[in-house]
Hints:
The protein is mainly beta and 773 residues long.
Amino acid sequence: MISLKSLMVSTANICSVSLLALASAAQASDAFAQDAGAPQSADETAASGDSAIVVTARRRVETLLEVPVSVSVATAEQLARDQIYTLTDLQRITPALEVSQTSGGENNGGARLRGLGTAVFNSSVTPSVAFVVDDVPQGNLAFPQLFDMGQVEVLRGPQGTLFGQSASAGVVNVRSVAPSLDGYSAQFGVDFADKGTGGAEYGLLVLRGAINAPLSDKIAVRIASQLREEKGLQRNVRLGNDSNIRDVGVRGRILAKPTETLTVNLTAEYNNNRTRGTNFFVLAIAPTGQANSTASNNAFTNPAGNCRMVISARAEQYCSELEPAQSSEVLSLSGMLDLELGAVTLTSITSYRKLDREVVRQDFTRLAGAASARSENLLQNVNQFTQEVRANYSGNGFDVIGGVFYAKYNYDQLPLGGTFGARTPADRVGFSICNAGGTFCIPGAGTPTFTREDTQSTTYAAFADVTVNLSDQIDLFGGLRYTDFDTSLGIGLNRVTTSNRSSIKDDNLSGRIGLRYQPNRDLNIYASYARGYKTPALVVNADPSVATVNLKPELADAFEFGVKYAVTPDIQLEANAYYNKTKNFQSQTQQLINTQLVSVANNIPSVTSRGIELSAFGRVSENLTFNAGYQFNVVKYPSGFLSDDGANIGGQQLVFAPRHKASLSGEYSRGVFGDVQAFLNANVVYKSATLLAARVDPRYRFPAHATIGGAIGIRDAENAWRASIFVRNLTKQREPTAYLANSFAGSIDGGIRAWPVGGLTARVVGLSFDASF
Length: 773
């Protein structure tokens, strides 16, 4: 008897061949498909000139008004206007989304929706918020750079039925600009800011460009690229060096339509990140109130070597004799085939992603002249293969999507040169607590130790999603997804082989069900229940010589009621209320182990998120557009839960989750002479006081504030060119991505470290120019 797992593997292996075989008959089915009126793709619908915003939130082409899902959309126009270049920037487009990436970009993306998301800094932990780019799930390999984007959709609440186990809290669904058969075109743009000029607190250079070329009436190519360089967000005052983060991305897409019924999309993308001088959390609030705070202050502000760093909320300066450095390379390949057979569309999506990260040095303690905690000479190899095959049937009175999915994920941590046990800077491998020259190391825990990690995970899934028209105005929708998951982790200390291998197997049946009521074309009322699932994980213990941490799977029960209303063809309103209870929420605590503050993964027994969301967007007049949103979100630690400082934090708002968040962006333009227009745009994000570390000390709660950005400039009426002066974080708010307690001489000293982010912790002011041909 053939098992479900064997059936899915076989299907995944032969899917592309099967579709190509079917394609040989596609020519004969062309006339039939044309008569049947096969549905357009999202790209084709967007290009047709329809003013309605088109989304693919349910793997179907629907308008934003009619889809029964809470989804926020940022169009290409808004993404360019608000300078959305990274995953962190996305949190400005909707109140529900928060992103807190650290150095090199968290492998799991670092996103949170409605206060829920991945809070474990480990490459093997599945994301709670899935990143999907051009229908390809990014899994644990979300890269922080975005460019040449056509649209971003943010789906709130469990979306696992169609997007898998990485979507227990929601999905960020990204569509890049597709190749066009309509003609040649090119775009070029540059943003530039110089640290110290015009009020800019760090330097920024962004170069972007794209070329579209139809090779025939059936094949088109689009090549896009972006370079983003950020300088001076941090400064090592010992070496006199400013930090430098450089991201380079290149993407090539090929669109081929060999027949009327067969469409092929091929994509290749390369991303490179190089980070120099960016330190792990910088001291932002001076040590105080602890017995050793005076000694700690002296160590940071005037250690051996006369460092004299300035401690401020800007979190700019640190002191280290050795420069932190790391780099990452990501290669992505994907192919998507769509074959239309009358009312049925068959789709095959194959993807392969590979990441190589070299950690030359990461400095955790930053103490010149004293023993500092560092990770050095590490090579992390990550790769992921996915295959999805699905069929979409649109019939009279109902439609159904069903398919199978397979994913294979591998993570390896290896030495990047060096010698096990060596103490000199060039030869140290792994984690150590030594002075820069290696002449002294903390006995025991501070001795250089390399931890070999080998994680392998496999996922098989089968899914189906159905919408049934109960009447002209009422639809019943729902679906199920079965997931079979297994993962294993091997560990080795000071060697390249692994032992002490652990493994976990799990399966789950999740799904959703709901009703949609549309009394007229301008009003959509819906209610739904969804069951979310996030796979278990094995995490290396803070002390790698002891057993691994087994994280239990997350299970979420989510209820939602929403209303969407088109006030006019150009203005739309939306309101929804939600309730989400997550069992075994995957998180981590900060603990002092072997004299160092380290992260320890754990499960919070239960976390509940409930609230309301309001949004409005559209075009008020020919000259004025706007996009506004508000979220009231109550998500608390369970009763009796202990904080990182050992106090009862139960009943307090969850870390990184503002109770109130609002966003407003818009643009006003007016003709000034000839075809030249002047324009003014602005974006404002307000957050109530937000806890940035799981501690009861009120200093870890960043106060309520508003971050303001905008631009003023001129442009051609047809948008052939535009030039502007821009600013982000106009009022110099000092919001970091997170706080971390500071330690000195093996104990907490009362200081607080912060991770600064450009545009949030520091202001940037510069010039921008774009042209289209």
